[in-house]
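Can you give me the bound-state structure? Components:
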Amino acid sequence: MTSRLSRMWPILARVRLSSVLGSRCVSQTPKSNASGAATASDLQPVSPAAQDIHGHAEVSPFEKNPDFHGFHHQDSFVDEWNMRLAFFFGISVAIVIGGTFIHYLPDHGMRQWARREAERLIKQREAYGLPLMTENYYDPSKIILPSSGEE
Amino acid sequence: MLKVLIPTIMLFPTIWLSSPKWLWTATTAHSLLIALVSLAWLKWTSETGWAASNMYLATDPLSTPLLVLTCWLLPLMILASQNHINPEPISRQRLYITLLASLQTFLIMAFGATEMIMFYIMFEATLIPTLIIITRWGNQTERLNAGTYFLFYTLAGSLPLLVALLLLQQSTGTLSMLILQYSQPLTLQSWGHKIWWAGCLIAFLVKMPLYGVHLWLPKAHVEAPVAGSMVLAAVLLKLGGYGMMRMMVMLDPLSKELAYPFIILALWGIIMTGSICLRQTDLKSLIAYSSVSHMGLVAGGILVQTPWGFTGAIILMIAHGLVSSALFCLANTAYERTHSRTMILARGLQMIFPLTAVWWFVANLANLALPPLPNLMGELMIITTMFNWSPWTITLTGTGTLITAGYSLYLFLMSQRGPAPSHIMGLSPFHTREHLLMVMHLVPVLLLITKPELMWGWCH
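Here's the bound-state model for the whole set.
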């Protein structure tokens, strides 16, 4: 059985469904009489004035303006000034001046003060021999508890 | 508060009255100045941390980092959109920036709200500009489906929230966060109370998103244009986290038991969505699923209700917001050049775009939580607090960290390394604008290494 299969298999493997049915089971647009197989260039006619999604022709904007900065396609003056202002307000003003402002903000949430105060109190209490912290935050004699056994 | 809100509202005249040539320059400069002024919120003025300009708008150490992130993101969105919106008619360009600015206004009012109903209204209001951005300016036909999923998932979660808030108003007499944090703990025993608990949180869990109700996110993030993806990933997901942190104050002691299934879903989601990332062919879809993974960790951190959990959640939200937005910008640069999101079409980019490869590298390292970046600090705090809650979570969070590193490496190797296909040679060079955009994303992440206490919230 397997020897029969191993003889038949090279022939079976080459049989394609399309050769049996006589056509390829692939959906295709019907062939135009102008050409043979449809190529990519036939599907989208490319003319020199073709506009792609950016509205500029297939030509790169760097051809017209070698210093194109990406801001304005048509006017190089606006493009350059947009670049300058974006860099100025973005980096020099917002990041540098803003960053300096943030750096010199006072102690955020008094965290550094809290650390210094804790160290100072520890030093003071160790000098006087006092315990560093009392176990009870509240005075236990002032706490009134319900008697156990009730809800 | 008003020194930021009024200039943000004045963005609308800037947009509509600028001459067409200077529209983008003017709005970029204006929004960057707003971002500078917003840094003034970072000053901790009172002992409690609340800085209230009036009864209805206030900031505290939880909302301040998110507000600064929101204000920082608007100029980045404008920079990122400038190229792909350029061919459209001028009034449509103005409309696009108007939608971004209105989103900004709603978000500032949402994060600054002291009254829960105002937060709810602003939470819902952010849906509208986002929906318009996704469905009008998305690039594929699937954007309609994406908009529908986005809208209805969020609405289905938030209608119970409205009912829950009205019930809370009925029982406590107020919905002001300033007052509710000092209110008596509510007696919550009956089944009705449990459903109320769920109603309070479902909206935010859908928004985060929690694994299980996360299906809207890959669709919305992928179909949105770059500014839409940026704001979704960076800020809108954090609305869910912020809402949860505000609500958790009032929901004890039910949360001790009821949070279990959601914590488990969140942790399982880290692993599942991380594994899905490893099998993605679509670049934006990979970044979207990685957002779900990170937000699962945030959700877990919030639901265990410990100081470290809250702090880790805030840090991870800020860091993830910046890094995820950076990754979406990088994906958009590849998309604008190849007009496809398929990863195998944009391979070997390091050969052609070496500086951009640096941005890809840093963004991916941040995504996989490399020390000393704040991404790691947030993740580590959440992992530690969850280990304290239950030692078994370390298996899930540890595996999640491993898979995160795996797919981040996969993303980097796939896009940057390897032989460059021949069509890559003809791609347009990188613009100064795109490099500036990446610097403005990644430099704040690096600077936050030096002063993380800005993000620690009120717990420490």
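A couple of observations. The beta strands of chain B are 51-52, 58-59. Chain B touches chain A through 47 residues (CB under 8 Å).
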